[in-house]
Amino acid sequence: MVWSDRAPELPRLENGYQVIAYGEITAYSKASRYQLIAYRIELDGVGRLNEIFERLKRKLEAEGAFAPERKRPMPRFPFRIALVSSRGAAGATDFLKILRERAPHIEVVFEETPVQGVAAAGEIVRAINRASQAEVDCVVVARGGGSYEDLFAFNAEEVARAIMRCRHPVISAIGHESDHTIADFVADRRAETPSAAAHALAPATARRAFCRQSPAAASVSNGSSRKS
């Protein structure tokens, strides 16, 4: 329990949050009942991560980072895409499979990075920076589904800043449709999944448009080396 005069000092709690509580235990011997009188509570686990997420979200929103007017349009028919992801991971594999089926002329520059773990955020930033310097039409930041903790590297402020300063339009394709990360809010476009990103960049009209190009233009595209 918490005394009413202490409650305003404590973090907002929701069912399922993990916490560390500091206080004292009292006993009511007649009923063999114990209770914890909490004086201080710290969020732990997902609760602590959610607090970090909400704090950064408020900060970036106040800066105008999510404003529609700063979002850049995606290229209608991209010919060269940078993919920031983990090589061999399900998300990257799905993206590449669909892209090759729908638009085999698109060259993919793979900027490999870990997509979860303690050091992942810094590695993702470096991969986005490399993609920013590449001669591409747009950048896709992708990973497949996972737990809230697994996806949390994409809630890091340094990742958000890297996306915002990227020279090219950025599509975030993180997790599943129900997952939302800070990267999704700052990216120029959000795709619900890596597969959805591939469909968005290679609509059915893309292949027809490519086939209608002059032989010289098609030759340049086909002659480029593809990294996957």
Structure write-up:
The protein is α/β, with parallel strands linked by helices and 228 residues long. It has eight helices and seven strands. The strands form two sheets. The protein has a five-stranded parallel sheet with strand order 4-3-5-6-7. A two-stranded antiparallel sheet has the order 1-2. 29% of the residues are buried. Helix 2 runs parallel beside helix 6 and helix 3 packs parallel to helix 4.
Throw out a few tags for this protein.
5-stranded parallel beta sheet, 7 strands, 228 residues
Q: What is the structure about, briefly put?
A:
This protein is of the alpha/beta class and 228 residues long. It is 37% helix and 21% strand.
Provide the fold topology.
Blueprint: E1 18-28, E2 33-44, H1 45-62, E3 80-85, H2 90-102, E4 107-112, H3 120-133, E5 138-143, H4 157-165, E6 170-174, H5 182-186, E7 189-190, H6 194-201, H7 204-211, H8 215-223
Parallel strand pairs: 3-4, 3-5, 5-6, 6-7
Antiparallel strand pairs: 1-2
**How many H/I helical runs?**
8
Across the major sheet, the strand order is 4-3-5-6-7
Beta strands, count: 7
Structural class: alpha/beta
Shape, please? elongated
Low-confidence stretches: 214-228
| Through-space gap between termini | 56 Å
Radius of gyration: 23 Å
Listing every helix as H and every strand as E from the N terminus to the C terminus, the arrangement reads EEHEHEHEHEHEHHH
Q: Which percent band covers the strand fraction?
A: 15-25%
Report the sheet with the most strands, covering strand number, pairing sense and barrel closure: 5 strands, parallel
Mean pLDDT: 83
Helix content: 25-40%
